[in-house]
Amino acid sequence: MNLYIYGLETDFTEEQKGLLNSKFAKVVFLDKADYSLPMEDRESKVIAADPDITGWSIPNETIAKIPNLKAICLQTTGYEWVDGEYCHEHDIAVTNVPHYASVSVAEKCVFMALALAKRFPLYLREGGMSYAPEFIGDEMWNKPTDIIGFGEIGHVLARRLEGLVGNKEICYYSHNQNDPDFHYLPFEDMLEKSEFMFVTISKNLESLALFDDLSRFNKDMKVVIVSNGFEEVAKRLVEKCEKGELGGVAFESDDPEILHREYKSNVFVTPHNAHCSHEALERMFEIWAEAIVGVADGKVVYQVN
After folding, report:
1. In b/e form, how buried is each residue of 217-250, taking b as 16+ CB within 10 angstroms?
2. Given pLDDT bands bounded at 50, 70 and 90, which one contains residue 298?
3. Could you tell me which of 22, 10, 149, 1 has the C-alpha nearest to residue 73?
């Protein structure tokens, strides 16, 4: 079995590279989304994909042209950027890298929420101190705080928010209402009172539909988005914030136009670096290598389709 890694060889440790070389007949590193080599290779194979190399997409048309493809091992926790159902129909396993950055992402959420609470974006734009009313910040303690999506990141975030806002103020919305330590609340019941809302839910048609109607989002609410795939939602929230109909919005983007735009209101945009810590990246490559080796050993781990 051969392995094609769309990623940088220097990102792997010598031990990890040695393990991969011991498990696969051939290991090829590729630094651009050129699939000609795996398409020409008739042997069974695995593709390991870094989204920064593949552009957050491996189209079905490309997958269909790669013979004897046994698995696509994604370097990310999110896996919506590959059609898992299509791969399942063609006996191709799709794996992800779960939970590696939960702490880092949760800490980034807290950072962005504090930035909005203290009106940090306005001070950045002003370049100095101001006592104008729109610059006066808020304390987070005892403020209604809601987490949309209560998976691993949501749980880690809730634990870090306990000392910041108080446990009794933390509510969550999720399909699984099974956490006795925090308070479940239907999404619609959050909209009028929530002052801090964190969006950590996975992207799908149902989760996106929660944000179809923004009219009930109260004017004091500050929204922090770290979920991938919510760019259009973020843009609509920014419009609402710029009109004075929302307390603030923070999100990540790598679009230079969005990153460097001069916003009039409490809008905080950063690059996609929530996952980027020494500890998280070390865990990511450990889990990614484990998933890749699992395919070679016939024991697929972290399969998501």
Report:
1. bbeebbbbbbbbbbeebbeebbebbeeebbbbbb
2. very high
3. 1
Residue 152 corresponds to which tokens in the numbers above? 């691993």
| Buried b or exposed e, range 56-78, using 16+ CB within 10 angstroms | eebeeeebeebeebbbbbbbbbb
- Measured CA to CA, the distance from residue 116 to residue 248 in angstroms comes to 6
DSSP 180-196: TTSEE--HHHHTTT-SE
Strand partners of residue 71: 46, 93
Report the 10 Å Cβ neighbour count for 268: 23
pLDDT value at residue 110: 98
The per-residue pLDDT for range 83-141, each reduced to its tens digit, is: 999 999 999 999 999 999 999 999 999 999 999 999 999 999 999 999 999 999 999 99
